[in-house]
């Protein structure tokens, strides 16, 4: 309340006016709908508000660059939302409880504090409780503007999660250089494997209309430290590189730039033919190299801080250097040479497998790329999926990790749930990401984790990166479901710090997204932490993989066979027969285990030592084999499928108890989706058991229900219009 | 404020609490984004609020049916938003200023009032200021629940537009029976000719997840009296008629039903082959007829109040009865017979033209259908576009209107702006609809307007209908732009009452959507009223038509020629040559004028009497012909194109003066779109002049700028990913 108000009548009048003003602003009731993501900035509980306010009386500092302005604006917005009143703004600290933000360049007060900012690098920051001009202040300082922005979001997160604001001494910097989203978005507005509506990019109205959502997208990413984005699908369209589309991409880059986000594009390898009028795209043809040099220079005229190209080549029908008898290194290096003068990089995907299927698909990327180690230009990174097949609910770590010490390997995680129930299944992916990052490659002895490969420490990579295939679309809630926002969040947090625990991330996110009430935080975090295991259980237990419906990847399809190529079927992967089930990748089979370090190969290759979660990934196992539970493999499969369904039922019941704590709009959508998930989990379980039973020819364990329908029923289901499949 | 509060301290406390409650509810600032459409229910200016409140102290009546509950809920929501406090709810009138709603069945108080409800039919209503139980009350009464709902929206509109609430004596009923939206929405989520994002229907998550948007869609339609909707594209997919999709459609029907909206589907004529396993879809084959009877019965088991089928047959590649040598009547009647036992109807589209192009395309629908007059079943309506070509910016009325006295002709308007600048051009369509409705067919002498054909009064049709091709999608603002909401609104209002003026509708909409401030209402209404003429001027002046880019229909393409068929080119329609320009549809040409009544034909066919707006539609006119302005035709063309561009500039300038009155979010988007429109208007003008100049070989009138670019430049522009084209 204004301090000039003296009389009760005056106070009354002021209150009436402010109540009216808020009412005018609020308009009719509108439920929360997820648009605000984890940046909701809802009022702090009144008991704690006074205490919080004492740390946010003033925003101090010179904020004259776009990025510092964004940082100050975010602080102002966030603190006003949480505290009910916006802090005052000042060039320097003049009151106790100030937040001073800036760089030594923007602020002499910060320069004078000698915070040791050299430690935090180009993107890091320091949060420090101290005294400035004799006033109590919280300092958000960095060497760069974007570091200040990241620090501002960190400070807001402390308010949002009700963390202590006393005696702050935070020193943060990202462990990974490129923290990048991959949008598989097509120029026609569709999104490959997108389950959250149309593409966020309204290419048709660009560059003239800049949807405010682009700014909110930038804010959300900056809040996590995501610093790059590939706007276009890896199954690329050369039109994206034409002048009109570069104008459009440049307009987006202009919105994202203040938030520290650099734009990348996918390069269709045959673009010199399709839009350049050349007869070839041979990377060793001088005219082709010249065309790309000219094209890249044109791109940099549009986007001076353009990041570079992401390339899918010679994979699933995409053109590439092998079309001309050249290697992946020849192709990547040609593009890298065009980008190098502008400091751009090439992210070359390792997701390749031969058209001719000469070998276990799981082995092909390793076979293709390991011989090329050391042959790539300095500004090439190789982008490797977490596992060797394709974003399955569970895969052992990709054998390339640790096997290319001279080539920076980026991680490619999938955030969109192509194989994990689309937008309706609640599956928190941090435990899956964590499992891969924690995997030990043993390439330099025990402790040579994938995390150390990816953060560059194991091999001393000069460049590092983590990419996530985005789950962001035009849906109001961005990600198709409220809980899928957590996967965007978790990706971003892990890209910044690949050591964070799944639980810590889940708790942060839950507090910011739903509530700080323990009655909410505890059950929601538990649901999240168990959810991925539940999905593995009802979809692909015990190391099974690639059992989904053909093409659209929706629902179970363990019976899928035939068609254009064996390794696009399910039977190729599960190899069920009268004897047993599983893909023998030991020396008696495809010997894919030989691509791992000897210590790893020894473990995976030994039926007794192989972790049961990977059992059928590496071994063809008899139906009556006794697993750790002492059940037979067949019984264990049935038990596991059933447990997955039950876990979803448990989530649904837990969620139903949260009605008093979660706004009705979001509660209802999550509840509806959990009901769908439970139904679909049952479908996965029943269809899979009905099918595998035709091989095992064994009864279900006692007390376990038969599938609800016949196998023919499940096989007859068709989904010609499942989303994300174009 | 609660009446029990006595002390100042108590009042203070209460105010603080309520302010806090509102603040908690409101959360951080969120701009208006158009989601609320014309149902924003923002607070009435405080000066008028007390007066308004005196008419809404109480909502009285028994509201125990879903529709009456919806009516009461809408009143409560709207009045609470506008008045700041929700009226109390009571079973009967107990206070002055009550709103009593119901039917004679639901309310004995209404039954006792003897309101003469027989006058209003099944969907009409009465609003009456009267006294009930000795208390001053406003009565919203109808014979049916849905009439009450419509009346509730009418009453809310009076509050919203600041109309007088004194001495109400409103008697309303719809003039047209089927007031129906046609969604050209595909099952894969794309929308043909849709410029407002993906389809509103999330088929994949249906029937299990009911997006709250479906309810808001129903509310918006009910507020206009729209009572039916075709969920699927006229270019139909038989999959929509399979059991899983009928479950989905039934779920939508369940949401729409309380709002008086019946669901229709498009019937793909070859469905018996595609999903029925038959070898033929011949409508005279008994197995085909039996298949449809069975299928229709199945649909009614899913949707007991299913409306019927909309059919596009033997048009633009769609299958139809002519594939089997049968007539359109044979096809429509076969479906009608299947629907009749369930009281369903067939809406059969008249938009057909031959593959072989034997004749002026403008003549073909008339030639095809007039001989069939009287041959259709009682439950068939023929759905006729407003003009004979295809939703051009301006077309003379379709010659079928008035020419089929024994067959109910429905109007088909296009709301989505396929040919009118997509979502970015501000083009208010009521004047276009009005122009067609006001056109005089002269079929029963002077005054035989299209309006009277469509409302059934001219020929005594037993069934009547007006269809609008929807402009509704998943975009936050529903229609792609804020002003395109006005076209949905205008369509609905005209479908209810085809006599309403464009200006009255524009004023209502502006008041509800933007503001009741005269400083807003007057300029916005003027912009809207002039906008369609501006678009005609910069796109297709003086009766020119079908000059857009090929396929995507985006931007000018007067040079389009060749390709699969002549009547999909521009040159077919403008026929420019060294001598002049225009399509001779008089007796010396295609003689399309002979399809009109003699009085109309005489006017259109006479170069001197033909309205100049239709000049080049009916006549091939020499370049040096003197038009009414005494300018040559060529000069007039240039002047008109230029005027169109200037009009858009004027709109842009007018809008820029409204910054103080319109919320920043919506103001900015409209401003950005007007900038796009001005640029594209200039493009239309320049490209058209550059092209037609190659025929006229005449200079531009003095003071008129040459096109900015060469003709080759304009011809080279490509738009492979323009929206709405799939």
Number of continuous helical runs of chain A: 22
* Major sheet: arrangement of strands of chain A: 7-8-9-10-11-12-13-14
| Count of beta strands of chain A | 16
Largest interface: A-B, 60 and 59 residues
Question: How many domains make up the 3D coordinates of chain A?
Answer: 3
- Secondary-structure-based class of chain A equals alpha/beta
Rg over CA atoms of chain A: 27 Å
Helix content of chain A: 25-40%
Overall geometry of chain A comes to globular
CATH class of the largest domain in chain A: Alpha Beta
Q: What is the CA–CA distance across the termini of chain A?
A: 57 Å
**CATH superfamily membership of the largest domain in chain A:** Glycosidases
The residue-averaged pLDDT of chain A reads: 95
Beta-strand proportion of chain A: 5-15%
CATH architecture of the largest domain in chain A: Alpha-Beta Barrel
Write down the oligomeric state.
homodimer
Largest sheet of chain A: 8 strands, parallel, barrel
Domain Glycosyl hydrolase family 67 catalytic (chains A, B): 160-478
Organism (chains A, B): Povalibacter uvarum
EC number (chains A, B): 3.2.1.131
Signal peptide (chains A, B): 1-31
Question: Quick recap of the structure?
Answer:
Chains A, B: Homodimer. The structure is a homodimer of 726-residue chains. By secondary structure, chain A is an alpha/beta fold.
Question: What would you note in describing this structure?
Answer:
Chains A, B: This is Xylan alpha-1,2-glucuronidase. Chains A, B: It comes from Povalibacter uvarum. Two copies of one chain form a homodimer. In chain A, the strands form three sheets. In chain A, strands 7-8-9-10-11-12-13-14 form an eight-stranded parallel β-barrel. A six-stranded mixed beta sheet of chain A has the order 2-1-3-5-4-6. Helix content of chain A is 38%, strand content 10%. The termini of chain A are far apart. The longest helix of chain A has 33 residues, at 664-696. Chain A has three domains: 5-172, Chitobiase/beta-hexosaminidase domain 2-like (Chitobiase, domain 2), CATH 3.30.379.10; 178-513, Glycosidases (TIM Barrel, Alpha-Beta Barrel); 537-583 and 620-716, Alpha-glucuronidase, C-terminal domain (Alpha-d-glucuronidase, C-terminal Domain, Alpha-Beta Complex), CATH 3.90.1330. Chain A is an alpha/beta fold and 726 residues long. Mean pLDDT of chain A is 95; it is low at 1-29. In chain A, helix 3 (66-83) packs parallel to helix 5. In chain A, strand 1 (58-60), helix 3 (66-83) and strand 2 (88-90) form a beta-alpha-beta unit. The radius of gyration of chain A is 27 Å and the shape is globular. Chain A has 22 helices and 16 strands. The interface between A and B is large, with 60 and 59 residues.
């Amino acid at each position: 309340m204004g301090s000039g108000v003296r009389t009760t009548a005056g106070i009354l009048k002021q209150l009436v006016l402010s109540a009216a003003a808020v009412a005018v602003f609020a308009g009719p009731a509108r439920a929360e709908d997820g648009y605000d993501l984890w940046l909701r900035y809802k009022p702090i509980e009144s008991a704690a508000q006074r205490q919080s306010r004492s740390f946010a009386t003033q925003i101090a500092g010179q904020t004259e660059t776009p990025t510092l302005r964004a940082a100050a604006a975010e602080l102002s917005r966030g603190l006003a939302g949480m505290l009910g009143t916006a802090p005052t703004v000042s060039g320097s600290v003049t009151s106790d409880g100030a937040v001073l933000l800036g760089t030594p360049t923007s602020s002499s007060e910060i320069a004078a504090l000698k915070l040791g900012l050299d430690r935090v690098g180009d993107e890091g920051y320091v949060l420090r409780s101290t005294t400035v001009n004799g006033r109590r202040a919280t300092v958000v300082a960095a060497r760069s503007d974007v570091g200040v922005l990241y620090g501002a979001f960190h400070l807001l997160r402390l308010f949002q999660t009700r963390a202590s604001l006393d005696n702050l001494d935070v020193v943060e910097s990202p462990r990974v250089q490129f923290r990048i989203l991959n949008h598989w978005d097509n120029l026609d507005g569709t999104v490959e494997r997108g389950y959250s509506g149309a593409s966020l990019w309204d290419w048709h109205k660009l560059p003239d209309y800049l949807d405010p959502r682009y700014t909110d997208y930038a804010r959300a990413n900056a809040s996590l430290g995501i610093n790059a984005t590939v706007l276009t699908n890896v199954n690329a369209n050369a039109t994206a590189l034409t002048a009109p589309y570069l104008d459009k991409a440049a307009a987006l880059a202009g919105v994202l730039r203040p938030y520290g986000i650099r734009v990348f594009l996918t390069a269709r390898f045959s673009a010199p033919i399709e839009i350049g009028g050349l007869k070839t795209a041979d990377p060793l043809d001088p005219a082709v190299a010249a065309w790309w040099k000219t094209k890249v220079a044109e791109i940099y005229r549009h986007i001076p801080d353009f990041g570079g190209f992401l390339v899918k080549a010679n994979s699933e029908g995409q053109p590439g250097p092998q079309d001309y008898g050249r290697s992946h290194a020849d192709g990547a290096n040609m593009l890298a040479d065009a980008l190098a003068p502008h400091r751009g990089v090439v992210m070359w995907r390792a997701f390749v497998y031969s058209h001719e299927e000469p070998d276990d698909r799981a082995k092909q990327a390793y076979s293709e790329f390991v011989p090329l180690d050391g042959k790539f230009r300095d500004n090439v990174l190789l982008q490797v999926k977490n596992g060797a097949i394709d974003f399955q609910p569970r895969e052992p770590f990709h054998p390339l990790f640790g096997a290319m010490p001279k080539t920076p390997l980026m991680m490619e995680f999938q955030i969109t749930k192509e194989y994990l129930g689309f937008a309706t299944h609640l599956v928190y992916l941090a435990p899956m990401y964590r499992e891969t990052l924690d995997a030990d490659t043993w390439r330099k002895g025990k402790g040579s984790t994938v995390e150390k490969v990816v953060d560059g420490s194991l091999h001393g990579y000069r460049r590092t990166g983590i990419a996530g295939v985005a789950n962001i679309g035009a849906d109001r809630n961005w990600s198709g479901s409220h809980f899928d926002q957590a996967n965007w969040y978790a990706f971003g947090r892990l890209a910044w710090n690949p050591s964070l625990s799944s639980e810590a991330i889940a708790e942060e996110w839950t507090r910011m997204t739903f509530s700080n009430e323990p009655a909410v935080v505890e059950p929601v975090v538990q649901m999240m932490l168990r959810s991925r295991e539940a999905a593995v259980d009802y979809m692909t237990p015990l190391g099974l993989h690639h059992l989904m419906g053909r093409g659209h990847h929706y629902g179970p399809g363990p019976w899928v066979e035939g068609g254009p190529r064996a390794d696009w079927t399910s039977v190729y992967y599960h190899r069920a027969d009268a004897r047993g089930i599983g893909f023998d990748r030991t020396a008696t089979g495809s010997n894919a285990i030989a691509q791992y370090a000897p210590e790893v190969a020894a473990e995976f290759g030994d039926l007794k030592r192989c972790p049961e979660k990977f059992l059928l990934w590496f071994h063809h196992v008899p139906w009556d084999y006794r697993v750790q539970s002492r059940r037979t493999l067949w019984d264990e499969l049935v038990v596991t499928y059933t447990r997955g369904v039950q876990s979803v039922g448990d989530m649904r019941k837990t969620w139903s108890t949260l009605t008093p704590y979660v706004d009705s709009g979001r509660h209802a959508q999550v509840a509806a989706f959990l009901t769908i998930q439970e139904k679909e989990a049952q479908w996965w379980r029943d269809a899979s058991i009905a099918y595998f039973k035709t091989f095992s020819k064994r009864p279900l364990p006692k007390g376990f229900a038969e599938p609800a329908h016949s196998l023919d029923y499940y096989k007859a289901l068709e989904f010609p219009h499942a989303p994300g499949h174009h």
